Every structure is written in structure tokens, then in C-alpha cells.
Amino acid sequence: MDEKDLGADLAKVLIPEDRLRAKVRELAEQIDADYAGRDLLLVGVLKGAVMIMADLARELHTPASMDWMAVSSYGSGTKSSGVVRILKDLDTDILDRHVLIVEDIIDSGLTLSWLVSNLRSRNPASLEICALLRKPEAVRTEIECRYLGFDIPNEFVVGYGLDYAERYRNLPFVGTLAPHVYGGDGS
Ligand SMILES: O=P(O)(O)OC[C@H]1O[C@H](OP(=O)(O)OP(=O)(O)O)[C@H](O)[C@@H]1O
Ligand code: HPA
After folding, report:
1. Is the complex ipTM more than 0.90?
2. 45 touches ligand 1 (CB under 6 Å)
3. Using only C-alpha atoms, what is the Rg of the chain?
4. What is the pTM of this model?
């Protein structure tokens, strides 16, 4: 599906494909510079981070392992419940590893806040975050994000991994969802 096929469900394209690609490349360059000579473990947070993880990993020159966690903090709607559950844990022991969490979005920040303290308790050598998107107006808890793609307005977004009710993840761009679809204003 491309930008011309925007259905009535989507309000607009917020970040087109070429800007996503350029930003991912830029993030990979920063990560390469910082992790040169280190044994890097990328931890992708399912399912939203699948696209950024796959593209970022391919842009990196630093050899990296990949592992995945699935956590749930959203129900079927657009608001974080703040209650995080592990649906799938890491297969890897991260003790003394250099861990980089790869996320699609920091919205309220509750998911990452919980994840960081969970992973920190496993004593990695280092723990940093790479997030493609952040909504500064929605953040309810400060998150130290070392590698950030874009700050975006406080609107519900879909595409490039991000879903609404499991739809739209395979859009190659990030777009805003029309309020009539979810019956809200994105806040
Ligand atoms: O900053 P927060 O308000 O906590 O929101 C961010 C989290 O919400 C989304 O995950 P979701 O639970 O919807 O699962 P998904 O990745 O499978 O879509 C997103 O992928 C982040 O993990
Ligand atoms: O804006 C969003 N879109 C999709 N999933 C999300 N999870 C948190 N915020 C969002």
C-alpha cells in the first residue's frame, strides 16, 4: 500500500517513506560510532518495533545480535493502561551485554519505563534506548532516549509497525489516523 492509497481511515501522511529511511540511516551511523568494537545486542519490542528493528539492523555496520520481547500495555484502544505484562521474554541472558532497546514509539513512556527497570535488574553492561517516534506532549514519565528519530504531535499514528487494532502496520510511512476511526482526539 502506498501514500496514494490513503483510505478514509487515515487523515494524513506524517512521515513519508524517504524521511524514515534517511532517519534510520542517521540513527545507524550514530549507533555505529558509539558501539564500535563492542558486542551489541539489539532488543526489539514486539510487535511495533519490527520495521525499525529490521531496517536499523541492516543499516548497521557493527555486528549485532537480535532478540525480542513482547510486552503489553495497551488493550484494544489508544490509551496505555500503564499495566505492563511480559508476553514473551528474551531468549538471551543479558548479564554484562551491551543492550540497545529498539522501540517504535514513546507515547506515555510507561512501557519503556517499566522495560528499562526490568532489563536493568538483569545487570547488562549498558542499556540504552533507540526509539523512532516520541510524543513530547503525551509523556507521563521521563525516558532517557539516546537515539531518537522524530518528535511528533500528540496524535494517534499508524504505519511502519504501528497499529490500530492490529491494522495498518504494513504501511511504509507513518500517518495519522482519522479520529472517526477510533473515536478520539489522540490524547
Ligand atoms: O509509551 P507508551 O504509552 O507505553 O506506548 C508505547 C508502547 O505502545 C505500543 O505497544 P503496544 O502495547 O500497542 O503493542 P504493539 O507494539 O504490539 O502494537 C508501542 O509499540 C510501545 O511499545
Ligand atoms: O500513536 C500510537 N499509534 C499506535 N500505537 C501506539 N502505541 C502508543 N502510541 C501509539
Report:
1. yes
2. yes
3. 16
4. 0.93
H helix intervals, the chain: 17-35, 50-59, 110-120, 179-182
Tally of CB atoms within 10 A around 55: 19
Which positions ≥6 away from 139 have C-beta within 8 Å? 106, 107, 108, 109
Q: Whose CA is nearest to atom 3 of ligand 2?
A: 157
Catalytic residues: 107
Scanning the structure block, which residue is given the C-alpha cell 513482547?
Answer: 70
Residue corresponding to grid cell 526490568: 118
Which ligand has an atom closest to residue 166 CA? 1
Q: Are 157 and 174 in contact (CB under 8 A)?
A: yes
Residues 156 and 78: beta-carbon distance below 8 Å = yes
Pocket test for ligand 1, best of 73, 119, 139 (most atoms within 8 A of CB): 73
CATH topology of domain 17-152: Rossmann fold (3.40.50)
At 60 the three-state DSSP class reads: coil
- Say how many CA atoms lie within 13 Å of 176 toward its Cβ: 16
**Amino acid letter, residue 151:** D
Cα 48 vs. chain centroid, distance in angstroms? Answer: 6
Measured over all CA atoms, what is the biggest interatomic distance in the chain, rounded to whole angstroms? 50
The pLDDT tens digits of the residues spanning 70-121 come to 998 765 455 666 678 899 999 999 999 999 999 999 999 999 999 999 999 9
